[in-house]
Amino acid sequence: MTAAGVSIASTASGHGRMRDRWVLAGLLTGPGLYIAIMAIVPAFLMVQLSLAHREVGGLWSPGFELTQYRQLATPLFARIMGFSLLLALTGAAICVSLAFPAAYFITRMRRRAQVAWLVFLLGSLSLSEVLIVFAFQVLLSTSGTLASALNAVGLLAPGASLYPNFPAVLTCLVYLLLPYVILFFYPALSQLDPEMEQAAATMGASRVSTFVKVVLPMMRGQILTGVLLVVIFTFGAYLTPLVLGRPPQWTIAIHINNAAMGAGNLPLAAAYAVAVVAFMVALLALTRILSQRKAVEA
Amino acid sequence: MTLSPRVLLRRGFLALIALFLAAPLIVVISVSFNATRRMSFPPTEFSLRWYRTFFSDYGWMASLERSLTIAGLAALVSVAVALPITYALWRYQAKAAAVLAGVGGALFLIPGVVAALMLSAFWGVTGHVGRLENVVLSHAIVLLGIPLSLLMVGFRTIDQAQVEAAYTMGARDSDAFRMVVRPAMTPYILCAFVFVFVLSINEYLIAYMVAGFTVQTLPIRIFANMRQGYEPTMCVAAVIFMVMGFSAFALMSKVADLPRLMGRTRPLED
Questions:
Q1: Does A24 contact B at CB distance below 8 Å?
Q2: Does the distance separating the beta carbons of A42 and B264 come in below 8 Å?
Q3: Would you place residue A55 in the very low, low, confident or very high pLDDT band (cuts 50, 70, 90)?
Q4: ∠ CA(A285), CA(A176), CA(B248), 5° rounding?
């Protein structure tokens, strides 16, 4: 009798598993197809494109050649990547050192104030890069407020412009990224136990030293990932350096776009893009190694 | 009430951050109400002239409508794709769903220009170029990471014990879905929709590289105008973006627990 009961139960669950499988297939087939077609196929296509043969008039034919990759070994490409990285790391240093304390303070506010900040940050984060660049153009233009104010106090020669230059590009990028980075730190910092800080305080540590000695080390991995986030975004930024910078301040994104849309050299654009992705993967691996090693040390 | 220097320092720091983030927006908003054609700040004379021009201009209105259509459809597609994946992950802990979530969310994490190039090459090869649906499907895949992560947060808030109880009382999947899952998930689905909608409507580079020559969205139109020089109606378009974005998120904070949605799990008192 027990044996019969067990066998009934097992067939029932076996039956249930079969049904689960059908349900799962029903749930995941559509999304799976969509993701395969729109994410995996384009990724392979881009790699194939980077190896393809360039034809005249913006066309290309399938092939397997390293013509475009040879262009990556030029000083020009090294200079572009070097500049993009410099811009990204400078931006990251500024963003993280502003965003980290800001997020820390926000997570310690009362609910209403926190919600208000979140709405404000989400709202400004979602604003189009076009719009922000345009706003900066208005703000920095020769007839704009900032220029006339600086003019009035004699910090800026009359008629001189505040853009296009490196600081303008950097400031705009920091503007675009700051809400992202604050919101990125928000979950981890809001998970910090207030009691732990109180414990440090009762042991005589000042707030600042608690922050530096307890909070910061715990957040090493997060901070490194935040830096990586800024780097990824900066390498992808197109409008900001285009409008607020001069050609020496053009990041890799502009060169990719110019190759694809302007020069009609899709294989070169694809080779650039593959190199950028490879570079990002290497950076990701590096941040993983760094955060793990530091965690072990701590 | 006297404030300690530490509190003062903290408030000052946050106020500076807020000012930095608000400054360009304030300038654009005030310039949009300017009566003159010249870009001057502070505005000399208040006027709604450029708002009237904007809303009676066929080109601007067509772009606005196109952008709204794209954003609505893109949000619909990406939520419709993310929902079964996250449900399968929560209900069956399915490996396939985890893989799909990983791949689907990945495009959100690669530099925007690379995603744009990939997708523009894809549409080029299919021979289906310069169409509105290209932008819709491209935005939906690139922004898929957002509904995936928001809906995962949502499913995590559902009390497993409650679901188990429903099953022991003989409820079928469809009953459990109707009684427990749907009410718990509705705010998260709404938020995911709004989030994708707002980001899609603001997106420039992908829209431009996928169909920019024929499908002129609002950001593409603003940028095209910027290249030709200053035009006060651009400020009006910019203000519309701001109003849409900020009110969407303010609305979201009314329907859902925003701190939780943004990843806070520790309880927060009022």
A1: yes
A2: no
A3: confident
A4: 110
Give the angle B244-B32-A169 at the CA atoms, nearest 5°: 80
**Rounded distance between C-alpha atoms, residue A126 and residue A178, angstroms:** 12
Domain range for residue B76? 58-261
Q: For the whole model, what pTM was predicted? A: 0.88
Burial grade of A90 (CB within 10 A; 0-12, 13-18, 19 or more): middle
**Residue at B29 is within a domain:** no
Contact B114 A277 (CB under 8 A): yes
Q: What residue spans define the domains of chain A? A: 2-50, 69-297
Judge whether A110 is closer than 8 Å to chain B, CB to CB.
yes
| Full DSSP string of A89-104 | HHHHHHHHHHHHHHHH
Give start and end residues of each alpha helix (H) in chain A. Answer: 2-35, 41-50, 67-70, 75-107, 111-126, 129-140, 145-152, 166-191, 194-202, 207-210, 216-218, 220-236, 239-244, 252-257, 266-297
Distance CA A25, CA A129 (A): 40
Who's near B129: CB < 8 A, 6+ residues apart? B123, B211
- The confidence band for A4, taking pLDDT boundaries of 50, 70 and 90, is very low
Its ipTM equals 0.88
* B268 in any annotated domain: no
Among candidate residues A66, A62, A69, the one with its CA nearest the CA of residue A48: A62
Residue B240 pLDDT > 60, yes or no? yes
- What's the CATH class of domain A69-297? mainly alpha
CATH number for position B189 = 1.10.3720.10
pLDDT of residue A144: 65
Is residue B53 situated within a structural domain? no
- Closest to B220 (Cα-Cα) out of B4, B70, B88, B82: B70
Query: Stretch B26-46: mean pLDDT, rounded?
Result: 78
Cβ atoms of residues A268 and A71 within 8 Å: yes
Residue in the block written with tokens 């087939």? A29
Residues in A 67-96 with any Cβ partner in B closer than 8 A: none
DSSP-derived secondary structure letter, B1:
-
Please give the Cα distance from B141 to B75 (Å, whole number).
Answer: 10
Spatial separation of the C-alpha atoms in residues A252 and A84, rounded to whole Å: 7
Residue B264: φ, ψ to 5°: -85, 125
| Mean pLDDT of the A29-56 span | 91
Domain contains B27 = no
Q: Do B209 and B117 form a contact (C-beta atoms < 8 A)?
A: yes
**Interchain proximity A144–B41, CB inside 8 Å:** yes
CA B74 to chain centre: 10
Number of structural domains, chain B?
Answer: 1
HSE at residue A246, side-chain half, CA atoms within 13 A, is 8
Q: In this complex, is the C-beta atom of A190 within 8 Å of any C-beta atom belonging to chain B?
A: yes
Q: What is the dihedral of CA B172, B174, B175, B181, to 10 degrees?
A: 120
Q: Which residue of B has its CA nearest to A44?
A: B118
Average pLDDT of chain A?
Answer: 84
Put simply, the answer to whether B28 touches A280 (Cβ < 8 Å) is: no
β-bridge mates for residue A60, sequence order:
A54
> Residue B68: what residue type?
L
Return the SS3 of B11. Answer: helix
Place of tokens 């950097």: A170
H or E stretch including A60?
strand A60-61
> From CA B154, how far away is CA B181, in angstroms rounded?
10
